[in-house]
Specification:
mainly alpha, 434 Repressor (Amino-terminal Domain), two-stranded antiparallel sheet, 5 helices, 2 strands, about 55% helix, about 5% strand
């Protein structure tokens, strides 16, 4: 499972809104919704956001380990 909480915190700290992702990074509504719902997006999308914000991808996303995730990998 992934969490984009770090992204939303970073945007808030910089006093930016989700509209920044749509306008400056040029994300479409579908990708924006996936980010809001903590669903998977492409590495290319995360790269575009990271470059725009001048951060590393790890500053945007966190992988959450759960029992269910561990079962899938074994």
């Amino acid at each position: 499972m992934v969490s984009y909480k770090k992204l939303w915190v970073l945007l808030a700290e910089r006093e930016l809104e989700g509209k920044y992702l749509k306008d400056v990074v040029n994300l479409d509504q579908q990708i924006y919704t996936k980010l809001r719902r903590n669903q998977y997006v492409s590495l290319k999308t995360l790269e575009r956001i990271a470059i725009s914000l001048k951060v590393q991808i790890g500053d945007l996303v966190e992988v959450i380990t759960t029992d269910e995730n561990e079962k899938e990998t074994t």
